[in-house]
Design goal:
The complex is a heterodimer of chains A (about 110) and B (about 110).
Chain A (H helix, E strand, L loop, with lengths): L4 E3 L2 E4 L5 E6 L6 E8 L3 E9 L2 E4 L8 E7 L2 E6 L8 E8 L3 E3 L3 E5 L1
Parallel strand pairs in A: 2-11
Antiparallel strand pairs in A: 1-3, 3-8, 4-5, 4-9, 5-6, 7-8, 9-10, 9-11
Chain B lengths: L3 E3 L3 E5 L4 E7 L6 E7 L6 E7 L4 E3 L3 E6 L4 E6 L8 E7 L4 E3 L2 E6 L1
Parallel strand pairs in B: 2-11
Antiparallel strand pairs in B: 1-3, 3-8, 4-5, 4-9, 6-7, 7-8, 9-11
Classes of the chains: A mainly beta (about 110), B mainly beta (about 110).
Chain lengths: ~110, ~110
């Protein structure tokens, strides 16, 4: 049963620290998405890649967030420096027309 | 811009009753729609989809209806169970905007 995996599942950090979230998409899926979910804003797209190339990262604060796909089996989302307002659940998804979501990384920035 | 949105943010139904969750879309060129279910602490999961050449599709206890004339989707859940309690999102294929979803609460 192929699944999207994300690590870590939970992260607590202090303001100013670097946070790195990792995602392993389902093998064979060529599109990878990063979302952020909060109660206030719902599920928001941060960035997405197709065939490892970034297609749209307009939802991401460019000064502190960066997303990469070093290879087809790994996508990363980094926040540096982190701020309390970044506290949210971050989801990775892979697929195409239909998206398959990972379990999320719950981030708390103190 | 084009968007997919939900009519009601919350819905409370009694166990055993049927549930209907509604969704409006604005892009008349959309040809593929998906319903996702997000349980507490988990990521959204695919439930059922429908293409624009259909107006109804049935799954196990779930039915999606598509009305292209008024650009409206609905998800019907038959004999709602406590395990159906979740947030439901409708989305277009290659969806990039999910919004806040509709919260379904099933009461005993």
């Amino acid at each position: 049963d192929a699944r999207v995996t994300q690590t870590p599942r939970d992260k607590v950090t202090e303001m100013g620290q670097e946070v790195t979230m990792r995602c392993q998409p389902i093998l064979g899926h060529n599109t990878v998405f990063w979302y952020r979910q909060t109660m206030m804003q719902g599920l928001e797209l941060l960035a997405y890649f197709r065939n490892r190339a970034p297609l749209d990262d307009s939802g991401m604060p460019k000064d502190r967030f960066s997303a990469e796909m070093p290879d087809a089996t790994l996508a990363t989302l980094k926040i540096q420096p982190s701020e309390p307002r970044d506290s949210a659940v971050y989801f990775c998804a892979s697929g195409g027309e239909t998206q398959y979501f990972g379990p999320g990384t719950r981030l708390l920035v103190l | 811009g084009e968007s997919v949105g939900l009519h009601l943010p919350t819905l409370s139904v009694q166990e055993g009753d049927n549930s209907i969750i509604n969704c409006a879309y604005s892009n008349s060129a959309s040809d593929y729609f998906i319903w996702y279910k997000q349980e507490s602490g988990k990521g959204p999961q695919f439930i059922i989809d429908i293409r624009s050449n259909m107006d109804k599709r049935q799954g196990q206890r779930v039915t999606v209806l598509l009305n292209k004339t008024v650009k409206h989707l609905s998800l019907q859940i038959a004999a709602t169970q406590p395990g159906d309690s979740a947030v439901y999102f409708c989305a277009e294929g290659y969806a990039l905007n999910f919004g806040k979803g509709t919260s379904l609460l099933v009461t005993p």
